[in-house]
Amino acid sequence: MHVIAIDDEFDAWRAAALDALAQKLTPESVDWRTSEVEPALFNDSAPSANGGDAPQLRVSRELASLLKDAAHFRDVRRWNFLYRVLWRWAQGDRSVASAADEDGARLYKMAKAVRRAQHDMIAYVRFRQRDASLGAPEYVAWYEPDHDVLAWGAAHFAARMGRSTWLIATPDGAAMFDGERLQLERRRALASEHATDVPDAAEALWMTYYRSIFNPARLNESALEQHMPVRFWKGLPEGALIPKLVSDARGGARRVAQAPSVGALGGKAVQVDAHEAQPERDAPTSLDTCRRCDLWRNATQAVHGAGPSDARIMLLGEQPGDQEDLKGEPFVGPAGQLLQDAMQRAGLPREHVYLTNAVKHFKWEPRGKRRLHKTPAQQEVEACSYWLEQELHDVGAKVIVTLGATALTALLGRRATLSAHVGRVVPFRDKLIVATYHPSYALRQNDEAAREKTVAAIVAALELASSLKP
């Protein structure tokens, strides 16, 4: 086993890795260790571990970028992993740079996490201005990055804060700028008090402004925590306000919104008829204002059906997905693309059908920074039947292709099972129903043969629907 000790920096690993490649050391025979030595600036002619010039190895620009970013991922075994990637590339295995490869997927994931940490550092570092009588630095900040992005973030601020002097302290070190030169100090246990116990007169104005723009009636806690993760709150001045503002919203402020502050303003009282002040809401005038269930609270918008009103065939899905919710159109995400391919195979042009969903708002649950689909409850399907009935009345479709179990039960009731109806033609009022799988079911199949079988079933259902003459 060859033990290679390096400084915990990409440039040192790069030089040592090229030297190890020149010696034909396999990844399994090398144990990478980090040592406390002065870091050297990275350049294309960095010295190798044995003191000579580093051997040359041409890699793609994309792989070089991935390696540099992944080097900042916090993992004690990252140097071993990066060397395995570089070794495979040197052996001619170009698949290692693909996200479809096991090592490639891990490399992309590490690089993505580091890039996200870089973005977060720009977004959540908050400088506080010190009293001028205390001397340099003028501004200080405390930040706890998820990965080793202090040097990157410090360079970003050095380029944008002119000749101001500042300090960013972290649990693993600090970055200092004296107006001309940036210096990094890699010492642990730097106390957060260096940055957080500094009074800043401007913060009182900022806190007043933040309170005034907070509208409890429009609070979406999931979206708040997604765009401003809780772990960063302690470093933000407004972070101390957020828990109470959220608590007040839960306790009733959401119902009156900013009415107390608005009511305190001067003005003339206007008499309003009670009936006009409290309009009937059981029958909403439009889908965009529908409040028949609570799904609208966490959705971006309602997603209307799309297609010609005289279409002979209606495709009925379950609910909008993440991309549909953002764009406001049905079947534009991955499942929609698979459905489009199935329609082409069946010879059914998209512009000749009407596309819609049984539920019009996206129901989801947070999973990290992603919004994952969650199956609508029966009461939500029933609440949305108001709008489905309107579409059945307004669209002249005589054949309805139901995609998935939720769409089928929305028409036939909760006793209908998809397995008992797939491939069959079922009379429904003056129309015919053809049941098949939802395209997302095919996307969830891990086996290629199983996926193709599901897609073939969808294509067969579309062909059957096209051949029917009700």
Automatic annotation (TrEMBL):
It comes from the Bacteria. The keyword Transmembrane does not apply. Keywords: 4Fe-4S, DNA damage, DNA repair, Hydrolase, Iron, Iron-sulfur, Metal-binding. GO terms for molecular function: 4 iron, 4 sulfur cluster binding; deaminated base DNA N-glycosylase activity; metal ion binding. Residues 304-463 form the Uracil-DNA glycosylase-like domain. PANTHER family: TYPE-4 URACIL-DNA GLYCOSYLASE, TYPE-5 URACIL-DNA GLYCOSYLASE. Belongs to the uracil-DNA glycosylase (UDG) superfamily. Type 4 (UDGa) family. NCBIfam families: SAM_7_link_chp, UDG_fam4, UDG_fam_dom. This is Type-4 uracil-DNA glycosylase. It comes from Caballeronia temeraria.
